[in-house]
């Protein structure tokens, strides 16, 4: 006996969440629940506005079509990659939970964001017990970014710094940034995500300045393949934008084979999807701090609680059922 249900949620965001110049005041998405012989599995389908190519309406229509077929036959599409990434991820995750294949323990460690004040960072790192922190760069002056990064690395001796430039810099700007990082501190920059406008420029930057990089936007480009390179230390994997769990696991394995880290990262999923990402991270990238510290952008949690979050938890049963069979 197979049953499938789709619910729609709408969660209020903290003020000031901006995605590529677009304000996001609420997060909308779908929760799928599969039930077979009393066992259940859930997944979240939540295209991210201005990042996902599919809209929520498109994802919903496709999910209903695929779920109807599954409910009748027990079969999923042969090719998960033919589905929208958010749909492929949510449905395959629900099936994985149903199979009992997702481990219960999660990796809830977060890399705290550097504010520029070493004392604040030391206090925050002290609580988490790990030494990886994050810094957004490329929004202001490259020189300022370089000075702050240098200061933090100098002030916190075991710090490993991850940075994200979101392809902001031309090579000359990136060089200004690098100039302010003392050469002996550069190895403690875990990586900078996509420093330059093009992957070629980013690779050249890494080689010239001795600062490792990571691929993020590039991972979602159609012809991306994992290629070993001494200066590429990680790939960032955002499952909602990538697709099925099997595709995610394959990318993780390719990265590990190439000697890189794979950093599982969030696309503003609700706490339900986010805790599943934490479990996926614990299971498949156990040595790496994932990029899942997005819950503080919400005003509520949904269905499942993130450990130690003080945000109120909305009951899943209160969400609108939009389709059921
Ligand atoms: Mg990034």
From TrEMBL:
The Mandelate racemase/muconate lactonizing enzyme C-terminal domain extends over 118-212
Q: Which cofactor does it need?
A: a divalent metal cation
Does this entry carry the keyword Zinc?
Answer: no
Q: Is Chaperone a UniProt keyword of this protein?
A: no
Reaction(s) this enzyme catalyzes, per UniProt = (1R,6R)-6-hydroxy-2-succinyl-cyclohexa-2,4-diene-1-carboxylate = 2-succinylbenzoate + H2O
UniProt family annotation: Belongs to the mandelate racemase/muconate lactonizing enzyme family. MenC type 1 subfamily.
Q: Where is the signal peptide?
A: none
User: What biological function has been recorded for the protein in this entry?
Assistant: Converts 2-succinyl-6-hydroxy-2,4-cyclohexadiene-1-carboxylate (SHCHC) to 2-succinylbenzoate (OSB).
InterPro entries, sorted: Enolase-like_C_sf, Enolase-like_N, Enolase_C-like, Mandelate_racemase_C, OSB_synthase_MenC1, OSBS_N
Record-given protein name = o-succinylbenzoate synthase
Q: What is its EC number?
A: 4.2.1.113
Q: Where is the active site?
A: 136, 238
Write one Gene Ontology MF term.
Answer: O-succinylbenzoate synthase activity
Positions annotated to bind Mg(2+): 164, 193, 216
Q: In which pathway does it act?
A: Quinol/quinone metabolism; 1,4-dihydroxy-2-naphthoate biosynthesis; 1,4-dihydroxy-2-naphthoate from chorismate: step 4/7; Quinol/quinone metabolism; menaquinone biosynthesis
Print the keywords alphabetically.
Lyase, Magnesium, Menaquinone biosynthesis, Metal-binding
């Amino acid at each position: 006996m197979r049953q499938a249900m789709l619910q729609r949620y709408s969660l209020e965001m903290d003020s000031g969440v901006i995605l590529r110049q677009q304000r996001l005041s609420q997060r909308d998405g779908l929760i799928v629940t599969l039930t077979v012989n009393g066992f259940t599995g859930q997944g979240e389908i939540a295209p991210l506005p201005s990042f996902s190519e599919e809209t929520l309406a498109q994802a919903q229509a496709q999910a209903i079509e695929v779920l109807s077929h599954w409910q009748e036959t027990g079969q999923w599409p042969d090719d998960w990659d033919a589905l929208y990434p958010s749909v492929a991820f949510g449905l395959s995750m629900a099936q994985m939970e149903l199979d009992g294949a997702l481990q219960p323990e999660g990796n809830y460690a977060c890399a705290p964001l550097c504010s520029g004040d070493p004392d604040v960072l030391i206090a925050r790192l002290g609580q988490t017990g790990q030494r990886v922190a994050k810094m957004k760069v490329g929004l202001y002056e490259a020189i300022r970014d370089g000075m702050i990064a240098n200061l933090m690395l100098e002030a916190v001796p075991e710090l490993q710094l991850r940075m994200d430039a979101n392809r902001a810099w031309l090579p000359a700007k990136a060089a200004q940034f690098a100039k302010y990082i003392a050469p002996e501190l550069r190895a403690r920059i875990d990586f900078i995500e996509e420093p330059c406008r093009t992957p070629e420029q980013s690779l050249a930057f890494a080689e010239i300045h001795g600062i490792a990089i990571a691929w993020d936007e590039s991972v979602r480009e159609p012809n991306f393949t994992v290629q070993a390179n001494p200066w590429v230390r990680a790939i960032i994997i955002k499952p909602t934008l990538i697709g099925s769990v099997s595709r995610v696991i394959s990318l993780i394995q390719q990265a590990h084979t190439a000697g890189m880290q794979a950093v599982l990262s969030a696309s503003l999923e609700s706490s339900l999807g986010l805790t599943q990402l934490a479990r996926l991270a614990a299971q498949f990238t156990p040595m790496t701090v994932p990029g899942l510290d997005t819950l503080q952008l919400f005003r509520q949690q949904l269905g499942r609680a993130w450990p130690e979050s003080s945000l109120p938890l909305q009951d899943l049963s209160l969400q609108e059922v939009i389709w059921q069979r």
